[in-house]
Amino acid sequence: MENPQVEQAKQQLLQAIQQGQTNPTTLLKLGQYANTALKNKKMYPIVIQSAIREGLITQDDVQPGVIDYKFLSFALTAGKLTKMLIDEGKINGMV
Q1: Hey, is 17 helix, strand or coil?
Q2: Rounded to an integer, what distance in angstroms lies between the CA atom of residue 59 and that of residue 40?
Q3: Which of 36, 38, 51, 58 has the fewest Cβ atoms within 10 Å of its own Cβ atom?
Q4: CA distance 38 to 42
């Protein structure tokens, strides 16, 4: 049995996807980018630009010259939760 907090987070994410606020492909890519950026800091700007392009954050959310580890962990978690929802058959990964 999964942690109730994980289940709650998955349900919130599922709702956002179903309402068209984001899509699974974007979240999967963002999670992959975040994972890469944690290993290679030079990739961080790519994560940020992707998140801005997808409307997940705005340029105002970005602090120049500073890596936002809280955002990276959010992106990584969103990607993992999305993968879980796909594996459970609750969403289609190619939207």
Answers
A1: helix
A2: 22
A3: 58
A4: 9
What three-state secondary structure class fits 66?
coil
The token duo for 71 is 């955002």
Distance in angstroms (rounded) separating the CA atoms of residues 9 and 7: 5
DSSP label of 41: G
Q: In whole angstroms, give the CA distance from residue 58 to residue 83.
A: 25
Q: pTM value?
A: 0.83
In the block, residue with structure tokens 């990739």: 43
User: Crossing angle, helix 24-39 and helix 69-87, to 10 degrees?
Assistant: 130
Q: H-helix or E-strand containing 33?
A: helix 24-39
**Residues 20-40 pLDDT 10s:** 888 899 899 899 999 999 999
